[in-house]
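hey all, quick one before standup. I had two proteins in the batch that finished overnight and I want to keep them in one place so we stop losing track of which output belongs to which input. First protein below, input sequence then structure tokens straight from the run.
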Amino acid sequence: MSDRRRVGVVLANLGTPDEPTPAAVRRYLREFLSDGRVIEVPKLVWFFILRLFILPLRPKRVAHAYASIWQGDSPMRLILLEQVQAIQRRLSDAYPSLEIMVKPGMSYGNPALRAALTELQQAGCHEIVVLPLFPQHSATSTGPVIDQVASWLQQQRNIPGLHLVRDYHVHPAYIAALAESVREHWANHGRADKLLFSFHGIPQPYADKGDPYPVQCHATAQAVVALLGLQADEWAISFQSRFGLQEWVKPYTDVLLKTWGESGVGSVQVLCPAFSADCLETLEEIAVENHETFIKAGGKHYQYIPALNARAAHLDAIEAILRPQVQAAAACCGSMAPVAASCPARATCGAVCEMCVSAAN
């Protein structure tokens, strides 16, 4: 075993089926839709709705949609693994005095979040950093990650130090990466009449109870708009992927696109900032279904701007978000490098910065 102290990092995303088949989708939906964080309906009532109506009927249609975007594996899983490999290289290069282990984890499906935590602990990581790849905090997405981490910790005797990122909805590097992706799309395809920021929706009652997600979505969009220098009539924000009969946060993406098409808006480009990786909701719902909605309503040109995925600027942002957490973890596990004499913060710093690592070497 290496003499270097080990710090674990988990990049966590929502989840995806193992295969684009009805059986695999049914397993995934059973796990996902059984989470009380996602569905806030009395358990007994939801038990019968889920098992009598949703699980018998929905998997076949959803499996067909997954099959249309499958790339030998789920795009979300492929992208998450690519992100993990890239961040592993970056953090290992940035902190040579540490042995950093980066693992993928999903709230639902595979690779499982609990398995990632167990693997890191068994490998000797006494400090673990968890980054939920949900820029905007919601009890429906970040919440299940925190719940699973807490549940896993309850089963441990040798409890590791935990460093958890709550959100990064206006982190400068994240906002810069979004703006860069839009500018690059403009350079290659020209500008549309409207830029639409489409975020995954949540039920309106969740927001009414205090979920900060809609507010943070607006803050993200406004920060990107400020970098792009857009005027008020050149962009809008909306919410997609509603499910069930209750009211969700508005405006709805499909309804807004239909209204735009009918009112003479000729071209639209859609960005989905809440998704750190392309998935069913972006590649099928936004890129295909909503394209048809806009064109049928009278629109002429519609383009989806891909998620940040494993773009260099996105990896820069993930690294920038992780660095303070890794530094704090390193300090906690007693792996601080000697402080360089020239460091301006040498009296108070509790982190392993590049200057100090260089001094140690």
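OK second protein, same deal, sequence then tokens:
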Amino acid sequence: MSPRSHRNLGTPLPLVPTPPPLILSLSKDASGRAGFLRLPRWNLTLPSPWKLVVGIVLAWGCWVTARRFWLGLGAVTHLSDRMPWGLWVGFDVLCGVALAAGGFSVMAMVHLFGFERLRPIVPATVLTAFLGYVLVSVGLLYDLGRPYNMWHVFIMHNPRSVMFEVAWCVILYLSVLAIEFSALVMERFRWTRALEMLGRITVPLVIAGALLSTLHQSSLGTLFLIVPGKLYTLWYSPYLPLMFFFSALAVGFAMVIFESYLSAFAFGRSLERGIIRELAHILLVTVLFYLGIKLQDLFARGALGALFVPRMETWCFWLEVALLAVPAAMLLDERLRADEHATFLSATLVVLGVIVNRLNVSIVGTYAYSGASYMPSFEELSVSVFLTTLGVLAFGFAVRFLGIFEGHDNGDGPTPALQKPAEAA
């Protein structure tokens, strides 16, 4: 904006431009310096059907949240003493932690094992993992009977408790993700000195993240080792920690493919086909390895006969296996592995298969022992949809604000904030 002269004083005074009412992505002046943060101007006068649906979901989610924290769990859930863990633990926590596993796996492959071809997807992967763990932490607050006592974990130590280990691993890994995510913010605001300092500790951060993720992903399976008589024989196994880890590893790669495909469609960018093909190959190996462990475990425990007992647990187990075996069979075909649409379908099936597995272990597998017939209430489903919607909106906001996908289509290379430590310095 050109300066305007002040008539009384006779000297030109620069006027500060007024920022636009809605702000989302950084604008830059002619010199390339960051200016005001500016959002795209959305038409809020006549909302589209999707905006109306999102508005209803958010409004209803806020109402249910207020009822849950004001009136307690009994007012909004179908939980009971016989069925204390329901949808919020099975989906919001167990599934949420597994679906966010792509963060530590991709970061480790790029920074520790030299898979430089995967570097362009690191910013989106870190963003997805960070938002996933934030939502897991928020979802856990809904399920705790006394969430205001959550701070006790910091001062009341019980090193023999698996839940204590999981809590501390999640807290520490969320801190690691917050630091990794801050690199995207620093790069956006051109805080070069802070980026230099962060670049020096990138490798130790990635090692810490991989270690913490391995511990709590497997420890979530360890939680169910203390209930050998309560969990149905198709799912109870001494290998549960190992199976939880490898299924999280598989669904982490599947989520990266899933997110990349949908992001390309939603944000109008090209798909990294070479990266997707490589991830599809890695996904195939991890899914086959997981299914192999599962089959060997059933054979070693003499539980193969339970696969043919006509009951609900059997059908749920076969559904879980089918949702993993079908995409593995698809990815064995090199032509399908090279097709991005078939790869997306395979990744979607793997995501659904691991979700069904977590729900089977946490809910369906305990039906026979508890004698309870649990069905999530509408309010429980509403909270899960509410948190998922918040995650999608936060992802879209961060993509526009931080320029996550800038430079992917024009060969500009990786985001400077996530380059090698020497390059960042």
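Flagging for whoever picks this up: The chain has a mean pLDDT of 83. The two ends are 36 Å apart (CA to CA).
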